[in-house]
Amino acid sequence: MNKSHNSDTANGIQHDQDIDLTNSLRKWADSFGVTLESSEFAAQMDLADPLREVRSNFTFPTMKDLPCVDLSLIEKPDEECIYLCGNSLGLKPKRADAYQQEVLNCWAKLGVFTHFTGRFPAAKCDLLVKDSLVKLVGAENTDEVVCMNGLTVNIHLLLISFYRPTATRYKIMIEGHAFPSDRYAVVSQLNLHGYTEEDGLIILQTRPGEHILRTEDILASIEKHGEHVAVIFLSGVHYYTGQKFDIETITKSGQAKGCLVGWDLAHAVGNVELKIHDWNVDFACWCTYKYLNSGAGGIAGVFIHQKHHHDNRPKFCGWWSNREDTRFEMKHSVDAAAGADSYRLCNPPPALVALHIAGLEIFEEAGMDRLLTKQYLLTGYLEHLMDHLALSDAGEDKFVEIITPRDPRQRGTQLSVMFPFSVKDIHERLEKRGVVCDVRLPSVMRLAPTASYNTFTDVYRFFTVLKQVMIECKM
Amino acid sequence: MNKSHNSDTANGIQHDQDIDLTNSLRKWADSFGVTLESSEFAAQMDLADPLREVRSNFTFPTMKDLPCVDLSLIEKPDEECIYLCGNSLGLKPKRADAYQQEVLNCWAKLGVFTHFTGRFPAAKCDLLVKDSLVKLVGAENTDEVVCMNGLTVNIHLLLISFYRPTATRYKIMIEGHAFPSDRYAVVSQLNLHGYTEEDGLIILQTRPGEHILRTEDILASIEKHGEHVAVIFLSGVHYYTGQKFDIETITKSGQAKGCLVGWDLAHAVGNVELKIHDWNVDFACWCTYKYLNSGAGGIAGVFIHQKHHHDNRPKFCGWWSNREDTRFEMKHSVDAAAGADSYRLCNPPPALVALHIAGLEIFEEAGMDRLLTKQYLLTGYLEHLMDHLALSDAGEDKFVEIITPRDPRQRGTQLSVMFPFSVKDIHERLEKRGVVCDVRLPSVMRLAPTASYNTFTDVYRFFTVLKQVMIECKM
Ligand SMILES: Cc1ncc(COP(=O)(O)O)c(C=O)c1O
Ligand SMILES: Cc1ncc(COP(=O)(O)O)c(C=O)c1O
PANTHER family from the entry (chains A, B) (predicted)? Predict the structure, then answer.
């Protein structure tokens, strides 16, 4: 699998290359001598998967342990569930337990000396993730990235610095279906500076009947409103639709109009290829409990482009904004740490950093390139089976509607789907059969076959369960 | 011990009562038939201590495990160290390991269902500490308190709401020796609103040659500057001197001048009696890794007085500011949670909440009243031994100078001391002998015999080591 896609780069695909995923999946099927829709195909793909061992780094919930499973509908209660929910909460890396115990042991054994001793020295542990973060987001160097706080806290800390409204340029551009936390954050920042939501927001809307924001429409809106926009703040991959935005193009066009352009990479990091330094992104932030598997409420991340490291914008400060080596001189003024580190406020929690590291190490070991190649095939396979389900079912091709872009260059792992039946009802039926995925109001189900732990067989199992559920629903 | 101090209330003492601590300690000594300066006294006090079993809830570092210990100077390398550093990082509650493992197990077993299931359901776990926090800070009800983020982050979130400068009232009053993080936070808030440190800060200074801020001087400064002061932000117990501020009186006098009055309770919570609702405190915040034993970088706490729950001040928002029951309706505007909960931004980390709970439960079990009574005696005992050391040593009563107030009503557990020799040198010598305490620049050593895990024998052992070190230093 690795070899035959050696030439694939960004997200497993070159932009100028044939991207007929079904075609390349079918070639695999032919080489195995099976049909693409057979269970054997999935089994063969798993065998050929160079990352097949990565799954063993994670603990999978079993069927019988899930609160929603109806055991009378399950053949093997001890079997691993069909977990397609990495978009919400990634699975637990097995090593997390040992790392967490190490944090506890160090505290127990050393008391306050745990601040500077051991594998996760409390006062420096946040620095340990920098190299990994540089690679995951495509930063230029470790000064551009930092882990701290939670995502929404970081959105605020970034906007305090980067949203500097003036009389003529005070608006913030977001999209109409932004994640609520981002919208609430942005609106409260507008309010802080005396602007109302109505006046201060420029909201990107999809065209009537469409789910996906077209890049051309975003660029047109920037062209139209840009001179009044202080900050453009969008998500790298959309939580609801799974759409991946063209970060480079949008950033460039926003900056050409004098806007600062920041990105919420919650659903992008660990999921799609990012080169945010090269793309000249001004600032970015992300959470780590989705594709990076750091656990609920995990410590979040921030990127500040190098060009802003010395531009003296207002910034919230704390003692952790200070350089490490002079911090305990306890001066009256901050002796600022380099780059993104100066955005830190508090001493970091080693318990959360250790969990973050447990997840990141698996990415280091697997290699993001290989994960991207696998993700491309895995999502393409899910897409094909969903299409097959729709077509095979009496030719109703709207049976299952995938609203995520069909072009793999415009998405990551997640497919968002709609059904002609109640999505809540379908979701409940799937859950009873051991499928874990989620629903976002008003009407999509999110399916994220995650390259680090999902198999082609997981996707195939999901497909057979869904087929069954759909038949039930039609009855 | 309990009985004979039954009438003691606030911090173990009634304000109108005889507070000659040495006298009451001496009565204990007489009743044991030993001298107050003998090791037997400490042993007897430990036997009489109704909280003597509480210590067994904590893991004590042993002599041999500490990085600074010189084993050639230690008789029993397996003995517990002399830990007087609860002011910096409290010791690990033994149960923390099991709770942390429960968080990990739940994540492993349930995946995303860990959000709503199990002992520490990720999406609600932060609510579990509210009852304890109400008691510890003296809130009126659970709506007034919340745990979230780190302390300095919370200082900023509070000041965004409560620091609303106007042309004539834009100053912030802090004290000259405020903890750096607090000062950096306050100054960056001033800057955000366009004020400079020079113009915007009103700094309370001690009188020449004094270490302790006199309440009368604070009140005089409020009287003088109050009409221009938007916010008074002080610490409940001072990190450097150990002084406990008269929160009630200062709050009242600030409010009489039209100021809002907020408190950083980092060194006060779990250490001194707090009734911040009754004292009419506008807002407060604290960290939990000191006396509350939640571990480095532990989740922090916030108090918002009920009177501010509906005053519509600007506030940073996130999806966690929203009511729990409507959060996933993902509306465009925040449907605000009650009171302090509306200051939350992010989904909480169960790993940190579980550690917080491990510490809080011990407080619940021991009872804050009993802890305060013990603290009063323990600190008084340390004070007496330090005085004794000074006097016994050739009558030089400045041998060890305690800068913390001598009046136990004006302090908590911490004594801050100065020496006629290099404090760094003394500190190193103490550390070599298994004493854990810290030094804060420029010149104090902080000693915190912590009621939840320290014994009278710990204090006595410290005294004998210090005596030895002082003799060495004089040589
Ligand atoms: C009074 C005071 N304020 C602020 C802080 C900083 O706390 P954090 O790093 O948790 O934000 C401390 C830490 O010791 C403190 O004692
Ligand atoms: C796009 C986006 N923004 C913000 C958040 C909120 O994150 P947090 O609770 O970590 O602040 C999420 C959480 O899923 C998200 O997906």
Answer: KYNURENINASE
Residue B73: helix, strand or coil by DSSP?
A: helix
Q: Which residues of B365-375 are buried (b: 16+ CB within 10 A; e: fewer)?
A: ebebebbbbbb
The reported pLDDT for the residue numbered A14 is 40
pTM: 0.96
* Residue whose CA lies nearest to ligand 2 atom number 15: A266
Q: Of ligand 1's atoms, which has the minimum distance to the CA of residue B287? A: 10
Among A157, A160, A155, residue whose Cα is nearest residue A174: A155
Identity of the residue numbered B326: T
Q: B186 CA to middle of ligand 1, Å?
A: 13
- With CB atoms and an 8 Å threshold, state whether A185 touches B345: yes
pLDDT (tens digit per residue) in B279-316 = 999 999 999 999 999 999 999 999 999 999 999 899 99
The pLDDT tens digits for A385-420 are 999 887 665 445 457 899 999 999 999 999 999 998
Residue B13 predicted with pLDDT over 90: no
> φ, ψ for residue B173 (rounded to 5)?
-100, 125
Q: Cβ contacts (< 8 Å) between A314 and chain B: which residues?
A: 188, 191-192
- Nearest-CA neighbor of A393 among A466, A289, A449? A466
User: How many residues in total does chain A contain?
Assistant: 475
Beta carbons of B67 and A110 less than 8 Å apart = yes
In this structure, the residue with its CA closest to atom 4 of ligand 2 is A181
Residue A159 is predicted with a pLDDT of 98
What residues have CB less than 8 Å from B31, skipping those under 6 apart? none
Distance CA B253, CA B237 (A): 18
Q: Are residues A349 and B297, on separate chains, in Cβ contact within 8 Å?
A: yes
Q: Give the model's pLDDT for residue B12.
A: 38
Give the residue ranges of chain A where pLDDT is below 70: 1-19, 391-398, 475
Residue having the nearest C-alpha atom to atom 4 of ligand 1: B181
Residue nearest to atom 5 of ligand 1 (CA): B181
Residue B46 has pLDDT above 80, yes or no: yes
Q: Which of the ligands is closest to the CA of residue B88? A: 1
Question: With contact defined as beta carbons under 8 Å apart, do A144 and A304 qualify?
Answer: yes
Q: For residue B57, is it left (φ>0), alpha (ψ between -120 and 50) or beta?
A: alpha
**CA nearest to A85 within chain B:** B112
Instruction: Give dist(CA B461, CA B40) in Å, integer.
Output: 12
pLDDT tens-digit series, residues A13-71: 343 344 688 889 999 999 999 999 999 999 999 999 999 999 999 999 999 999 999 99
Contact (CB<8Å) B152/A181: no
CA distance to partner chain B, nearest, from residue A296 (Å): 6
- Which phi and psi (to 5°) does residue B468 adopt? -60, -45
**H or E segment to which residue A354 belongs:** helix A350-366
**pLDDT over 70 percentage in chain A:** 94
Instruction: Provide the pLDDT for residue B470.
Output: 87
CB pairs under 8 A between A and B: 270
Residue with token string 């729990």: B324
Q: How far is B177 from chain A (nearest CA, A)?
A: 9
Which residues on A lie below 8 Å from B349 (Cβ)? 150, 295-299, 349, 352
Percent of all residues in chain B with a pLDDT value above 90, rounded to a whole number: 88
The predicted structure's pLDDT at residue A420: 85
Q: Where are any strands of DSSP class E within A408-466? A: 415-418, 435-436, 438-440, 444-447
A294 in ligand 2 pocket by Cβ < 6 Å? no
Q: What is the pLDDT of residues A208-225, one digit of tens each?
A: 999 999 999 999 999 999
For B82-195, where are the alpha helices, taking DSSP H only? 96-110, 130-137, 151-162, 180-192
Whole-number Å distance between alpha carbons of B161 and A314: 18
Whether the ipTM is more than 0.90: the answer is yes
